[in-house]
Amino acid sequence: MSLQPETRGHIKVLWAVLAVVFVILMVTHPKTVFEGASSGVQTWWNIVFPALLPFFIASELLMSFGVVRFMGVLLEPVMRPLFNVPGTGSFVVAVGFTSGYPIGAMLTAKLRTQGSISRVEAERLVSFTNNSSPLFMLVAVAVGMFNMPALGYLIAGSHYLGNLTLGLALRFYQRHDINKTPATPWQGNWIRGAFRDMMRVIQAEQRPPGRIISDAVRNSINNLLSIGGFIILFAVIIRLFEQAGLIHLLAGLFSMLLVPLGYAPETMPALATGLFEMTLGTRAAVESQTTLLQQLMAVAVILAWSGLSIQAQVVSMVSGTDIRLWPFLISRICHAGLATMYTVLLYPIFILESKPVSTFDFPLGNLIFHPSYADYLQVSCFIMLAFLIIPLLLHLAYIFVTASRLGIRR
Question: Is there a domain that residue 209 lies in?
Fold first, then answer.
């Protein structure tokens, strides 16, 4: 799906025109630009930076010290049949489902750069391992916006189920890829083999430990600075669009597409805002004057789509690789549909247990938009451990069943 040189030239001209228009709007609306930039800086510094920095650094260290390779060998029998990706993809799945955007894309790009996965396998991974963080869904949305903690499980459950379903379906995407990573052969003792592969990675690493740590910190901060730039840019764009009335125009276009599918017209402005930025769109969906189910459906779409701001961050993370982005973009649309479907199916179960509460009565109420460093680590690390332990238990069961069959044959 490569573009012709003439088409690329036209696209560059279009980007140049948009850049000129953006500069003109900045000059004519300086107060709006300043307010948007200030909002973006606060979001990045108070939420994104402390939430993602520890996971970025830890991921760099685990990859450099061979721990990812160790996990890859152990979880190969689980990841291949489920998602048609190597065992090393298990680390991306675990971190991507617990840490929020766009760390799944960053880790996938690193694995692709190292040659640990093929291009098609990378496209599968990046398409279903970029999720909203659990703390954002459970606390910021369910408690801070809806005032109904039990809804957090519905929102997060439909979100994760949608992406997991997408991952299972993507195993058939170019399933006969000739460049796919060879499966790790079973050599009797998987744990010993995993340690052996981890030691190979450690021995091949020429940098001293101090240099590895400093590189991990520097690379993580550079990535977060890039993410911060995108957050600030799109915060400004949204403010300018609101000032110019373009959000209402987009809402009208969405009404023609989505209202026939069962979405409420009252949620269209929220979806138009969520097209660009997830948090603002989610807040607008909760404030829309419609039924609770319609609000949840809109939230499911916005969280699954994730906003052009986050998608631009994903693009920046994989820009140095040969990973194609069209599977990722199509998967975001599919995820929006799947998340909505699961929301509608699970709604009767969760709504019976949902009761409005004051955010001050809930233990995590003070984390609505500014989760502390320690609380975020506690929640995310717990969920990450669950994502790692469950596949390990499945793998042990696989070894037990295989050994039992060999014993019966003997």
Answer: yes
Name, in order, each residue with C-beta under 8 angstroms of 230's C-beta and a sequence gap of 6 or more.
309, 310, 312, 313, 316
Q: Is residue 89 part of a domain?
A: yes
What's the total number of domains in the chain? 1
The verdict on residue 126 lying in a domain is yes
Query: How far is it, in rounded angstroms, from Cα 336 to Cα 306?
Result: 9
How confident is the prediction along the chain (410 residues), in pLDDT tens digits per residue? 555 666 666 677 888 888 898 888 888 889 999 998 998 898 788 877 887 788 788 878 887 887 777 777 777 777 888 888 888 888 888 888 877 788 889 889 988 998 888 899 999 999 999 888 887 888 788 888 888 888 989 999 999 999 999 999 998 888 776 667 666 655 556 677 677 777 777 777 788 888 888 998 998 899 889 888 888 998 898 888 888 888 889 999 999 999 998 999 999 999 999 999 888 889 889 999 999 999 999 999 999 999 998 999 899 889 888 899 899 999 999 999 999 999 999 998 877 555 544 443 333 334 334 444 455 455 555 555 555 555 555 555 555 555 555 555 55
Instruction: Give the residue ranges of DSSP H helices in 245-325.
Output: 246-258, 268-274, 278-287, 292-305, 307-318
Residue with tokens 């740590």: 213
Q: What element of type H or E holds 107?
A: helix 103-114
- In a domain, residue 22? The reply is no
Q: 308 with 276: CB under 8 angstroms?
A: yes
> Which domain range does residue 125 map to?
28-171+188-409
**What stretches of 148-291 show up as alpha helix (H) in DSSP?**
151-170, 190-204, 209-244, 246-258, 268-274, 278-287
